[in-house]
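Task: sequence in, structure out. Protein: HTH cro/C1-type domain-containing protein.
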Amino acid sequence: MSPAEPRPALARRLRALREGAGITQAQLAQALGEGRPLSTGLISSWENTQRPVTPPVHRLKAYATLFARPLNMDGDTVLPVKQLTDEEQVSRKDLLAELLWLRDGRETIEPAPIRTDFWQFGADEDITIVCAQLPEEYRQHLTYADPENADYVLLYTYADPDALIELFGHIRSRNPDNRVRFLTAGELKADDYTAHLVLLGGVDWNTVTKDVIERVDLPVEQVSREAEPRNNGFRVKRGGETRLFSPRLDKGGHLLEDVAHLYRGVSPFNPRRTVTVCNGMYGRGTLGAVRALTDARFRDQNWAYLQDRFGDAETFSVISRVPVVGGQGLTPDWTVEENRLHEWPEAGA
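Result:
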């Protein structure tokens, strides 16, 4: 049984777990939401035996952890696994094995091949890098961006070309036998969405970034520069608290520090593939998100930090500062605490 097939048995089991504990879908959504409740519609879709939606593995892990112990829904949340008793640990292990079997026909998660690099993917898995097209108002001032010009250069029509060149070469070198392509958001065909997706640039210009962020479970929202010229940045919601991480500009409008966001998760279009978002409020933030894991001076230690911090989590994100000196964005070093503005999931979650 493949993850693309409906799983009514899993849907029935998830519903039975909830009803057996005597809790509502809204209460379960609150408990699983890590401070930001999931929608009851999402819970309902996982329990729908007619048209079931298959939860990602990290959600099944949360189910197993939550239902491994007696529930008290006055304030119950998913405890860190290490806080479970020995008996609860055994219950969690057995329940997770059952849920994985119902999901994939297997009791354990097959060990992934050892990766030495964040940008290394499985053999024979296609990788599609998606950029925004530079808006017409900017292209019209670039001679080489005019298709009628004899010296027309296609790359001049792309937003974030520096990030694209940096990333494309690195991914190709780490995945020499894979098909690696780069396209603008408007060039994507239906089949392109089912590859590993790497999205460059934010919601202002990259429509695929906007679409993906709206579909995934992530407490980070990019506030558009076009919508909020004076109050933009990356907005993080947790419980009733909201924080905004914004770039810094001087009085003359020169960029002093950008904000970069890296997100990696299960693709909403193909559960066997990933989606990675590298974006910033400005181009130097996008490049900083890329270079954090391509720059030879920092990539190994940053990759080691991600492994140590998030372990085998399928979904995580890091917001970091990108200082700008002499017009150049500096590669963020994530081993320096002050460079990391926000991480999700939070430690201990």
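Residues 127-344 form one domain.
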